[in-house]
Amino acid sequence: MNFLDLIWLIPLFPLAGAAMMLMLGRNLDPQPASEVALAPGLEHTHEDHGHDHGHGHSHGHGQSHDHGHGHGHAASPLRFLIGWICPGMVLLSFLFSAGAVLQLAGTESKAHEVVLFRWIAGLPFHLADGRLAAFGADWGFLLDPLSSVMALVVTGIGFLIHVYSIGYMGHESGYYRFFGYLNLFVFFMLMLVLANNYLLLFVGWEGVGLCSYLLIGFYFHKKSAGDAGNKAFIVNRIGDAGFILGMLLLFSVAGSLSFGEVRRALAGMHPEVAQFGVLSAAALLLFIGATGKSAQFPLFVWLPDAMEGPTPVSALIHAATMVTAGVYMVARSADLYILTPQTSALVAVVGALTAILAASIGLVQNDIKRVLAYSTVSQLGYMVLALGVGAYWVAVFHLYTHAFFKALLFLGSGSVIHAMSGEQDMRRMGGLKDKIPITYRTMLVGSIAIAGIPGLAGFFSKDEILWQVWSSPLGSKALWAVGLVTAGMTAFYMWRLMAMTFFGASRADAHTQEHIHESPAAMTVPLIVLAVGSALGGWIGVPKLWAAFPESFRLFEHWLAPMFPGVHGEHAAHHDTSVEWLLMGLSVAVAVGGIALARHFYQVRPDLPDRVAASAGPLYRTLYNKWYLDDIYAFLFIDGLCKKGGQAMGRFDLGVVDGGVNGAGWLTRVSSALSIWWDTWIIDGAVRLTSFLVRVGSYPVRLIHNGQFQTYALYVVAGVLLFLTYYVARS
Amino acid sequence: MDQHLLSIVLFTPLAGLAVLLFLPGENKTLIKLWANLVAFAGFLVSLPLASRFDASNGGYQFVEKAPWIPTMGVQYIIGIDGISLLLVMLTTLIGFLSILSSWTSIDERVKEYYAMFLLLQTGMIGVFVALDFFLFYVFWEIVLIPMYFIIGVWGGPRKLYAAIKFVLYTLAGSVLMLLGILTLYFQHFKQFGYYTFEVAALMRLDLPLGLQQWVFWAFFLGFAIKVPMFPFHTWLPDAHVEAPTAGSVILAAVLLKMGTYGFLRFSLPLLPKASIDQTIVQALAVLSIIAIIYGALVSLMQQDWKKLVAYSSVSHLGFCTLGIFALNPNGIAGSVIQQINHGISTGMLFLIIGVIYERRHTREIAAYGGLAHVMPKFATVFAFAMLSSAGLPLLNGFVGEFTILQGAFEASRTWAALAVTGVILGAAYLLWLYQRTMLGQVTNARNLHLPDLSPRELAVFAPLILWAVWIGVYPKPYFDVLEKPVAQLVERVRPSYFTGQVQAGLTEHRAP
User: Fold this and answer.
1) How far are the Cα atoms of A90, A383, A417 from residue A168, in angstroms, in the given order?
2) Which residues in chain B have their CB less than 8 angstroms from residue A119's CB?
3) What angle do CA A115, A120, A123 make, to 5 degrees?
4) With contact defined as beta carbons under 8 Å apart, do A358 and A588 qualify?
5) B334–chain A nearest CA distance, Å
6) Which of B402, B447, B450 to substitute to test the interface with A, most A CBs within 10 Å?
7) Strands B74-80 and B61-69
8) What tens digit of pLDDT does each residue of B226-238 get?
């Protein structure tokens, strides 16, 4: 079977699954009539879990649904089909991807393109240099080393998370809807990574945003879920606006939006070293798109709120795959970024800033999913930092290892929340180590993997990033230092999470404690598989420094690096391995130190955190309140621009614009009234005056004409007498 | 048969109307059935237009020509190119769906209602097929009358105010347009020695720039009020809010397109020098961009569901006019496609409001919330309409919006950068509307037992959803029929466009 020519089928499997679910799912999974959620006070509510602990946000019980709904109705005997169809579709995609990637490895060019048909017609368009080009985009798919890594991550991790969801969402109402959206997400994500042009990539880009919106708002009876969904969509749209303009600008320079042709066009262009030209602007605009999707400063604020969605969603969309789309897109545009050192420098700074900012917030959060959310933002910052210094394959390497351990950590946290009857606040956990041992052990692997303990996946990719930041001509020591501090913070907040969740005495109430149980196999098996990946996944990217290992341990670099352009300029002394060993030792020391510190704080001296928080009040509050970014945005954009601006415009529209129209109407009416007055009294008045005068003037005459014959006879007689008298008098 | 196809399409509703008048007024079901049948037949007979249309032929097709008032040089000339084809198809389909959607909502003066709709239908098709300026003007004015009655008789509480505002406002515009038409008419006599209103003949006129500018502004008032462009838009929210559902649907989906169509069919080709005049182009682009942003911002703050959608129309039509005055193939083709898209998605949004209004008799957003629990099918359809209107890729709105942005970008990067904010704000007001009405908990006990969409209501939405997906996934047929006429239009206005030498000032970015 020639999988390479069938790559267009890869996205279509989950699309078919989604279509089945969203059209027929209700028949497989009839919804209880009592599903209608009522506001309190209307009738009895279905909210049987009143434990919102008021820790600053109203997101307390995203998972509480597990135990709330769904008991009151008889499940359809066919409901289990949903759990077979949807994961099965993703598995099919995975198998097809794997087959295609194996075949791709055997080809000479390491790139295979399949074009189905034209999508946006190619109408003439004048390029920046005056040439006339046709602006079009195809339904075209491209499998090359980069997209093959992405496709395998998306379908592989995606399949595991689908399996996990069978257990996790098993008792939920809206089961079919959940899987339909999840399949739809995988479809769009695969469109995103397999598209052969920017515009089709944008289809996936917007589509995953839609699925993210739908799944964040899955528990849509909660206002906080709806708010978070809106926030995610709209913040992403800001990035998308940049993306659209970036595409247009890129097209006006390159004359095409297909990756291959853009690459060919850019190959002949000079780097914009001294000036910030069109290419730099295009790169910057595209990067604005990436800051939205990949949650970078200043647009990362939507991602923590996105944790309103069910936990498998957080794992798949908001950790392992969708949020890496921005990283993928920038890596895909490497040929552009390599020509624009100024934009690249900005990318690196934004990445470093995001990494440390988010890590610092993660230090003090108490919601287990929020800690992981900020951790995700921070790790994405690492990837972006790597992109900024031109280490494109390293960014993708970290993307790949991160997908394992962050999916694992999220799913593990889901298992914890499951065990804790929906509790997400770590201050009410503790002592879970022996009660849910599989969850504990797998999460332990994940947390030391992300912390950067040697031998586990995170170590290899993170260390390579730090080395590249140090050694690349686009990097700097300052950025490296930021990365190192972030690594320490990462180790600290991860162990803090582990300590608060699994060690010490339980702080949960008795009722919750009674119900603590390990999750079913559908959930634990994916955890175990991901733990294995987190532990061993990095061994295909062993550093060059470890010269003892054969080249096959550097498979990842050999697979990916050739497709990326090299960074222009002098690399730091590569042959001097002592520096590299020293740096590696430092980063390991920082990781171990972070863990040790967290252990000291949360296991040895549990009274310390509160005392430190109290003594460093303003700093603590700043971190706890996420550097006040949400408040600043709310003030400027929500209240300022949208509310106040909208209201002002509304008043302007009613008062001035429509006022003008109504004023014109009023003027017409007034002038018409005046005209009537004028007409009645002046024009018609003149007419009537004339007639009056005639009438008055004719009055004497009218007196004579009274119509009586006798009177006329009298006049005749009088006349005759008058004449007679006259002639008589004369003669 | 074939040579009169277009006349058949044009007069089918009118013929149906003639029969309708003789039906007994008290038999409402019969009248409804007949009107639906006629409207459906009107749609069916228009299908051959699409199937027999030859996209490779850039000229007018299905042309019919006959003398009408010979002493004045008035002729009956009708014909369509790709632009009018799409608008005619939009009219016949939306017209039928509007009539279908009125089945339960209109129960008084049923006969008059459907009579007005059928008359409206012929008027609108006439506007899009007329190739004689006099004939066009007749149809243009005919449309006003039934719409006046539809709003004024079957409308809401302030229906008289809205109806009179609508008629007087548009009439004021069209009177000025008439002056422009007459100017061309007399100029033609001056230059060629005989009187005619034939558009093709008027295109041969050679007019000085100054005169073209005067005529352009006269046309502008007629068309801009109809679109409506900022600041002539305030009749629209009132008309929409007061009109019955089907009236709003037709108004938004088809009637507004008469204005944009006017620019494309008359302003640009008849007045090419004025249309490329920098003052005029800049002024219209600025008004369009204001409409995009301003309409969206005003939408954000509306408390009335229908008013919100009405203002969103102002924003979307801003995209359409911006595309036209980008004066390049992408801008104009995108504009036409977006006109169709706006018909589909805003038509759906008004139909959605109609569904809920019929059940609850209020359009106040605050009266709703949590409807997705009660009416899941309705919520799904609404989500579709919202996403189509917000320009999500793979649905229709994206294709139009993006193509317009391409055109705007080619004309001026600043225009594109400003217009793209409409994409952000568009998502904001729609998502917020959706959240306030559909999501959350049911906060009002009266919303608890609302029935979900009936099969008839679903049948109204289904073709629109399919159409939205078609344009989103495979828009090629649309680009195909538009390519030739749009290229001719661009060539007419900017003769050097396709030779690669572009007039200075129009390709490079400048501040508007």
Assistant:
1) 18, 30, 10
2) 473-476
3) 115
4) no
5) 10
6) B402
7) antiparallel
8) 999 988 988 999 9
**B305 belongs to a structural domain:** yes
Answer whether A645 sits within 8 Å of B297, measured CB to CB: yes
Residue appearing with tokens 């959706």: B434
What is the phi/psi pair of residue B79, to 5°? 175, 160
CA distance B306 to chain A (A): 15
**Nearest CB to B448 within list A36, A233, A252:** A36
**What is the C-alpha to C-alpha distance for residues B441 and A222, in angstroms, rounded to an integer?**
7
Integer Cα distance of A580 and A585 in angstroms: 9
| pLDDT greater at residue B209 or residue A62 | B209
**Residue in chain B nearest A654 by alpha carbon:** B234
**End-to-end alpha-carbon separation of chain A, Å?**
150
Nearest to B298 among A202, A646, A661 (CB): A646
| Per-residue pLDDT, A710 | 84
Whole-number pLDDT of residue A36: 58
On the 0-12 / 13-18 / 19+ scale of CB atoms within 10 A, A433 is middle
CB contact under 8 A, B441 and A38: yes
C-alpha to C-alpha distance for A725 and A560, rounded to whole angstroms: 143
Residue B300 lies in a domain: yes
Residue B372, in any domain of the structure:
yes
Q: What is the least distance, in Å, from the CA of B419 to any CA of chain A?
A: 10
Tally C-beta pairs within 8 A across A and B.
Answer: 181
* Average confidence score pLDDT of chain B: 91
Interchain proximity B443–A202, CB inside 8 Å: no
Candidate from A130, A226, A248 with C-beta closest to B416: A248
Cα separations (Å) of A396 from A315, A536, B235? 18, 17, 55
- Look at chain B and report how many structural domains it folds into: 1
What pLDDT digit, counting tens, does each position of A577-607 carry? Answer: 888 888 889 999 999 999 898 888 888 887 7
Q: Which residue type occupies A234?
A: I
Is B174 in a helix, a strand, or coil?
Answer: helix
ipTM above 0.85, yes or no: yes
- Rounded-to-10 torsion of CA B276, B279, B284, B289: 120
Chain A, nearest residue to B474 by Cα: A119
> Are the C-beta atoms of A146 and A560 separated by less than 8 Å?
yes
Nearest to B11 by CA among B147, B91, B83, B119: B119
Nearest to A304 by CA among A239, A378, A234: A378
pLDDT tens digits along A515-539? 888 888 888 999 999 999 999 988 8
Residue range of the domain that includes B401: 276-495
B402, amino acid identity: F
- Chain A interface, best mutation among B294, B332, B384, B406, by max A CB count within 10 A: B406
Minimum Cα–Cα distance from A650: chain B residue:
B298
Beta carbons of A203 and B393 less than 8 Å apart: yes
**Whole-angstrom distance, CA of residue B465 vs CA of residue A22:** 15
Distance in angstroms (rounded) separating the CA atoms of residues A317 and B430: 23
Tokens at A536, concatenated:
């061993």
**Pairwise CB contact (< 8 Å): A126 & B428:** no
| Angle, CA A482 vertex, CA A481 and CA A483 arms, to 5° | 90
CA distances to B6, B131, B135, B137 from B69, in Å: 21, 15, 10, 14
Interchain CB distance below 8 Å, A125 and B329: yes
Q: Best residue in A27, A123, A210 to probe B by mutation, most B CBs within 10 Å?
A: A123
Stretch A274-296: mean pLDDT: 91
The stretch B245-261 carries a mean pLDDT of 94
Residue B511 inside a domain? The answer is no
Q: Is the pLDDT of residue A63 over 90?
A: no
